[in-house]
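Notes taken during the Thursday session

The instructor put the following on the board and asked us to keep it in front of us for the whole hour. The protein is cinnamyl-alcohol dehydrogenase. We were told not to look anything up and to reason only from what is written here. First, the residues (352 in total):
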Amino acid sequence: MEGRRVIGWAARDVSAHLSPYSFTLRKTGPEDVVLKVLYCGVDHTDLHQMRGELMPINYPLVPGHEVVGEVVEVGSEVNKFKLGDKVGVGCLVSSCGKCLSCNSNNEQYCNQRVFTYGAVNKDGTPTHGGFSSAMVVHQKFVVQIPEKLAPEQAAPLLCAGVTAYSPLKQFNNSDKAIKAGILGLGGVGHLAVLIAKAMGHHVTVISSSEKKKVEALEHLHADAFLVSSNAAEMEGAAASLDYILDTVPAFHSLEPYISLLKAGGKLIFVGVSTKPLHFNNDELILGNKSLTGSFIGSMEETQEILDFWAEKGLSTMIEVVKMDYINKAFERLERNDVRYRFVLEVAGSNLE
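Then, after some discussion, the predicted structure tokens were revealed:
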């Protein structure tokens, strides 16, 4: 089927200012789903991408990779979805489908993965994200939104939520009490606290100052709060944690956090630093500790986190805004002036 004209909001250059942009969706194939975009999460990665800080960008760029929509058309071979279904699209819209990663349901590690925006579809057309009125996506890269989950609540789970869930699920249903550390209390960090608590872990939030202590303990119900700049607190917590999920997307010293891990503990990176991180490896060797990373999650895990959220009755902490507020929202996001995620109400916005 021929592509349709849609309206999105795009960045034209590294200034990252967004404004209306008309473009044509790629042709709809037999396994494609066309969705009307209802909501889209606003992620810090969007800002980096619009500024060209992560990879070379061909402008105009329509961001948005936490997309919740309603199915309005399906290809002739689509068997997972029907008209009217509430569905989600995360960070990826394609992969090679043949490699070891793809064949083991880890398509996020495929070398030929195609990102939801800022990339190129297999037919040579550019990918555009959920800051637009509609999208066309292969059914493999679409997930079902559970009926019990409000669509705006689901949006942040499609990137931030699965980014926290994927590395934490290895500690789920453990036969021992798990002591968790969550480093950083932003968009990913706050969801990680909720996930770890729902998994039954004892959760310590680690932050550079006391300013988020009340939020961590009273709003998110963490079990403990640790100020990394307080030497006495850090020393008292030495060798106490089974894992630390490092969500900080900026340069920071690693050694203070490595010292918090028990023997055999893991420091897991999900936040990308723009500068190299340094550490001495003696603590790793002497304590059998490891540094590891995790990138978003698979499509299978994306469905899992949505079902997990609905089953546990969890709530994302969001501020819903219209498209005409998006540039202001990014200004606030950069100042960390949001608790904890912006969600765009795309269908309720005037996109023209």
